[in-house]
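Moderator note: this is an archived Q&A kept for reference. The question asked for a predicted structure of one protein chain; the sequence and the answer are reproduced below.
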Amino acid sequence: MNTIARHIFTAVLYSFLLSISMIALTIVTFVEDWLSVFEMKIGDVSFLLAAFVLTVTMALITGIVTAVYWKQRLNRIEKQLLEIAKGQKTSTPLESYNELETIEQYMHQIQEKIKSQAEHAQKLATERAQEREQSLQEIVVQERNRLARELHDSVSQQLFAASMMMSAINESNIEGENSKQLQLVEKMIHQSQLEMRALLLHLRPVALKGKSLQEGVEELLVELLQKVPLDIEWKVEAFEVEKGVEDQLFRILQESISNTLRHAEASSLQVMMIEREQTVILRVVDNGVGFDMNTRKTNSYGLQNMQERALEVGGTFKIVSVPGEGTRMEVKVPNLRRVGEGND
């Protein structure tokens, strides 16, 4: 039962009981023969019927007015709670209701607590990012670079040569014997190239190493555009965030692109990184094969890793995919650095 129906039912029931009590009191106090009450009339209408209709009518009016009154206030609370759940700043109404003042104070305290926890999480993430950069062993970086160079100079080059040879064979043997098998081999080599490029993307140093987030993202996308057969478009705006947030956003982008190369079979990729209303938005969209959201593996390491990185800096992670229509990944992180500057 909704709010309006509940108030109307309560008002009608209360008024009905009150009317019975008043009629009974009238009979006892002013009428000697209580049976004569049934013969009493107001104009041409029976006294009892008139009293009942008047009572129910007043009850309906009272119930509807009261229900609408409280419905508006509950809707306001619901709207503010939804804004808190989305990480948005609660809107300030034009008028204030005394009945809800305490509840609004509690909601404001909850919002401040969430903001404080997000600031603390970002501060810890920044400290951990700085510690990781300071404690990163040079031997690990050199080994990753060495392995990436060897894979690129050996396996990757061999795959490229094999792909070119298979492409030439297929062009000269379009209607020949085993043409379907040769095309399948060419497709497998092409997929192996994408897997190798995704692996090289993982092997490259994940730290920005003195670059800004925007510089690192554009450098990564330009390199991909040169090496990967994808139509890549991007929009990267200039803004400043904490070092820990930069590090996590860059890692999330790397992980998302790697998943696209390995699984999506996409022909186009769109990357957007902007700031709106003190919130940094990172969005990656491909037109690949997609997957069923209801049957996806909950223990998918890549998706879980991206979600954990977003939560680590007080952000939200959302992914939407439709089989045959592609995948859309979106991360939103509050830019508390900009909030602090605005308060100053």
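Archived answer notes: The longest helix spans residues 47-85.
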